[in-house]
Amino acid sequence: MNFNRNLGNYPGTLITISLSVALFLIGFCGWIALTSKELIKFVKQNIEVQVYLEKGLDPAETNKIRDEILKTGFVEIINGKPAVSFITKEAAAKAFFEETKESYQDILGDNPFRDAYSFKVNEASFGEANLKKVKTEVEKIKGVFEVDYARDFVKGIISNVNKVYTLLAIVVIIFFVATILLINNTIKLALYSQRFIIRTMQLVGATNGFIQKPFILKGMVQGLVASLVAIVLVFITQKIAVSQIEGLSLIQNNYSMLILGGILVVLGPVIGVSSTFQSIIRYLKMDLDELY
């Protein structure tokens, strides 16, 4: 009975701490990836295409251009309404003056701006290649002078986010492999003190399943505790970042964060159980001479 009580009684604090740190790093990278995804989504929802019109068009021709733009299927629909607005050349001139405090009349005399339509593109039309297609198709509409959008901004966002995704994927894989190796070695060292108890239990007829049970349960508990600690650390980090970085709260998705937390809750016990199982199998198959 004494052997039975001692079976599975080994220091597990170092294992729990190591696994907590590793899971936190994995969770942190996951949060960065989710934030990047939400950033792309936010950008998609706010990309606007400017359609500058020919001068001298009457209201009927202007309205016809709007209808033609809607027919292209590029316009985002928000709350059942197309996200397209008409900007007069007078409004454009006023906005320019408010922003620069420079009057075009002092230099040019005449209003150089054009009437324009501004519309948000739908998700299917986002992307560098798709926006080029939007520009080409809309410029074919009669009465359209030019179509423009923030090319460099879109290109930079897509390029940088893709780099972030690739880097984070590599980092997560490295962390995951390092975690498995670290926890495996740590558990092997922790179980070293149990090797004679394991052999004694085998000699008195205990089955492998009976011997493995307390170790597996402890590995599961350690993994679960490590997961909870990692989740708390990730959420604390998120809250601090949101409070310190202006605008970061706009690209936070609580539902995705809950999914990330669920993944960590599962990942911790899985790593703990699998690593413990591999280590205990090693001692169960060890010859008597190897124990010494």
Descriptive terms for the model:
2 domains; alpha+beta; Alpha-Beta Plaits; 11 helices; four-stranded antiparallel sheet; two-stranded antiparallel sheet; 292 residues
Please tell me about this protein's structure.
The structure is a single chain. The chain folds into 2 domains: 176 residues, no CATH class; 102 residues, Alpha-Beta Plaits (2-Layer Sandwich), CATH 3.30.70. It is built from 11 helices and 6 strands. A 4-stranded antiparallel sheet has the order 4-5-1-6. It has a two-stranded antiparallel ribbon with strand order 2-3. The protein is α+β, with helices and mostly antiparallel strands and 292 residues long.
